[in-house]
Design a protein that fits this description.
This protein is 31% helix and 24% strand. By secondary structure, the chain is α+β, with helices and mostly antiparallel strands. The N and C termini lie far apart (50 Å). Strands 6, 7, 8, 9, 10, 11 and 12 form a 7-stranded mixed sheet that branches. A 5-stranded mixed sheet has the order 2-1-5-3-4, with helices on one face. It folds into 3 domains: 76 residues, Ubiquitin-like (UB roll) (Roll), CATH 3.10.20; 157 residues, Cathepsin B, Chain A; 31 residues, no CATH class.
Length: 310
């Protein structure tokens, strides 16, 4: 019998589980999930679908086919909430929502400094930055999965993602975004914000503003990305005890105001990229181009639309 391929998201990141079949039991599933995520067997809570909804895993003897689990599904694994009395003892701690990884439980921020984590300028900086705020580490391979997620979403809704929005035909865009040399921007941030179920606040140092993606969805969590006009880096709170935090409660306006102040300070000290002066390389013909205007002219004359940072 063919094994199921199930994607698992938890505070430890993302893994693919291929050791079970539709005849495997819920109990076996929980054992594997506990091993993958570090959540104890009796404390596992599983969400499925979009938006994520709890799935009943109370009967350990049920087969996976009976609970509707199929290959290709994504499971979000969380630790069951503590009882109200436990919560009162431990303060204002909450379990992480949607399996997003952070080095601290989401709650009031400890005293610390909002810092930039520099990621490589390899045309996938947006995806690497999002990977860092989700999983707490710099992994330059996460762009492949994120590009696939974006392509699938765009291909599934051709009315919304039409040529006027994308700047190219839907099918052409889906091929383009999956190329490692293609940059991500607002469209891609908006899609990934919905996919991961949290607000993504892009701190724009060029204009000293914060652009919020997912603001209208009332997500419970928020992450911050720094954008200098060309390059993205993630922001994190470096804490006095040596730890750090990348995911914050959406209602925490103190950290939001700190990010806003950072944007203003960066603009005043000119920590942004002048789009008229930065250098690009056409990855098709290796031509070096100065600024956005030259790049646009080159693309119009040659139909080359793939550029890399220099």
């Amino acid at each position: 019998m063919a094994s199921l391929a199930i994607r698992v998201k938890s505070r430890n990141g993302q893994q693919v589980l291929k050791d079970l079949t539709s005849e495997s039991t819920v109990g076996e599933l929980k054992m594997f999930l506990s091993s993958l995520t570090g959540v104890s067997y009796d404390s596992i809570s599983v969400l499925i679908g979009f938006p994520p909804k709890p799935i009943d895993i109370s009967n350990n003897d049920k087969k996976l086919s009976e609970i509707g689990l199929r290959t290709g599904e994504t499971l979000i694994v969380e630790e069951k909430s503590k009882t109200s009395s436990d919560s009162a003892k431990s303060g204002n701690e909450k379990p992480l929502e949607n399996g997003i990884a952070s080095n601290e439980l989401v709650g009031p921020c400890r005293p610390g400094i909002l810092m930039k984590k520099v990621v490589p300028s390899d045309n996938s900086c947006l995806f690497t930055s999002i990977g860092f705020v989700l999983n707490g580490n710099v992994d330059t391979s996460v762009h492949t999965l994120m590009r696939q997620i974006i392509a699938m979403e765009v291909a599934s809704d051709q009315d919304t993602y039409n040529e006027a929005m994308l700047g190219k035909p839907n099918a052409e865009y889906c091929v383009w975004i999956q190329q490692p040399s293609s940059w991500g921007g607002a469209i891609e941030v908006a899609i990934l914000s919905r996919f991961y179920g949290l607000e993504m606040a892009v701190v724009d140092t060029l204009n000293a503003i914060i652009n919020r993606f997912g603001e209208d969805k009332n997500y419970g969590q928020r992450v911050f990305l720094l954008f200098d006009g060309v390059h993205y880096d993630p922001l994190y709170l470096e804490q006095s005890d040596g730890g750090f935090q990348t995911v914050f409660p959406a209602e925490d306006m103190d950290i939001y105001n700190e990010a806003e102040q950072l944007a203003k300070e960066a603009k005043s000290s000119r920590q942004f990229t002048d789009l008229n002066k930065f250098t690009l390389r056409c990855t098709v013909c290796d031509t070096l181009l100065k600024g956005q205007v030259e790049a646009q002219k080159h693309a119009k004359e040659t139909m080359h639309t793939s550029f890399g940072e220099v």
